Amino acid sequence: MGIFSEQVVINRDIEGVESYVMPTSATDVVTISGSMLGGSLHSLDKNNKVPSMTAAMLDKGTIDKDKYKISDILESVGAELHFSNTLYHTHFTGFCLKNDLDTVVTLLAEQVRKPSFSSDELSILKTRIIGNLERNKEDTKKLALIGLLRNIFPQSHPNYRETIESSIDLIGKVSTQDLLSFHAKQYGLGSLKIVAAGDLAPESFNNLIAKAFGGWAHKKSEIPRIKEKALKTKGATKEINVPDKTSSDLYLGQAIGIDRDHKDYYALMMGVYVLGGNFSARLMQSVRDKQGLTYSIGSSISGVSFGADGYWSTWGTFAPDILEKGKKATMEQIQLWFKNGITEEELSAKKNTIAGSFKVSLDSTSGLSGKILSNAEQNRTVSYLDKYPEIIKKISLLEVNSAIKKYIDPKNMFAISAGTVA
Fold first, then answer.
1. Are 85 and 27 in contact (CB under 8 A)?
2. Which has the closest alpha carbon to 122: 65, 180, 169, 60?
3. Is residue 336 in a domain?
4. Which value, to the nearest 10 degrees, does the dihedral of the CA atoms of residues 237, 241, 242, 247 take?
5. Helix ranges restricted to H, 222-322
6. Is the same domain home to 134 and 208?
């Protein structure tokens, strides 16, 4: 048993809703996190921007209240409500005082159940998002990452990304009818998960949920099945020229062919973390600190959730005139890491770092609620959160170095840079 198994109270009495309540020693403060299936992959047609726009419009007014009235209610009690969208889910988070929980939960339910989708508000939102996307055309890091993912995943894969130009075009085409149709089809009970952590009683919170969400229609939804796997990459290099930039961003990467539930995932994750997971990792110590070639560099595994075969990548930013030198130095470290593996000392140090970071993330009600929600979305029991530090502790040196050899292929990494060509 652990703190999550002992303290999290799970309730499924309301059909189509799972609630997870964790009372803590925090005084008067409560954090709410929740989600329902309704991400970009659930789009009704080829415009996968409709789900994210639907979520972004939830705080722009309901049938009964405009956005100013909503803002006044939240400000009057010092509370917050935020909405977001991922590939798979529509998310919401809330922060409030214990005595205002009823007000916040009631408002939350109204926003997700009865949004107004004002055409004027949609027009304002589209203008703002398109403006941000236009600025992204100058963001060399984002351009390089988009280029990497477009070259190692097919278009139907969750990890594939559209060009910025395509995203602007799709945003511009979103209509209020698109939002209404998506909301009517996707939003409802069935996949709704709500987490609350802080100064509250489980029974009282569940009564609030029943009152606020009771009677909402049930919607049948599931994680879309992945039809295609990642592309097999062969060593190749591409450049994206962005004029008048003082730095260039470089991505080196390839698909790994496994997801987060694979038996080798944690061993490979640990190996990649030793290479470039934090400021004391090899890439930072060598390419930045010793050679002085970059301000920032790192390596990570991404895109491995909900059955997706993910990828690992190394990113660095370099002055245009030393980009090739920086790339060579980075590849040398990757080759050494691949050939010799990591050491027992490195493994032990990174185990302590990861375990420590996990514990620190649980020091706040927002950290607790976020961890519980993410775990629930992956259909894991809460006991998994108690076991996580032990899972990390048990990773062996042989497992890590074997995983590096098995899933990494330095000869066939895809390299792409974005910036001013020197």
1. no
2. 60
3. yes
4. 50
5. 265-276, 282-283
6. yes
Q: Mind listing the pLDDT tens digit for each residue in 79-108?
A: 999 999 999 999 999 999 999 999 999 999
Judge if 37 and 177 occupy the same domain: yes
Q: Is residue 222 part of a domain?
A: no
User: Does residue 175 sit in the same domain as residue 267?
Assistant: no
Residue with tokens 């100064």, as numbered in its chain: 199
- Claim to verify: residue 286 and residue 319 sit in the same structural domain: yes
Residues 204 and 240 in one domain: no
- The CATH number linked to 150 is 3.30.830.10
Domain that holds residue 55: 3-213
User: What stretches in the chain show pLDDT beneath 70?
Assistant: 1, 422
pTM reported for the whole predicted model: 0.93
Question: Taking the chain, what is the end-to-end CA distance rounded to the nearest angstrom?
Answer: 58
Question: What one-character-per-residue DSSP string does 316-385 give?
Answer: EEE-GGGHHHHHHHHHHHHHHHHHH---HHHHHHHHHHHHHHHHHTTSSHHHHHHHHHHHHHTT--THHH
DSSP state letter for 60: S
**Within-domain flag for 248:** yes
The total domain count for the chain is 2
- Residue 398, φ and ψ in degrees, nearest 5: -65, -40
Pair of tokens at residue 146? 């988009």
CB distance 47 to 221 below 8 Å = no
Count Cβ atoms below 10 Å from residue 82 Cβ, excluding itself.
11
Distance CA 80, CA 82 (A): 7
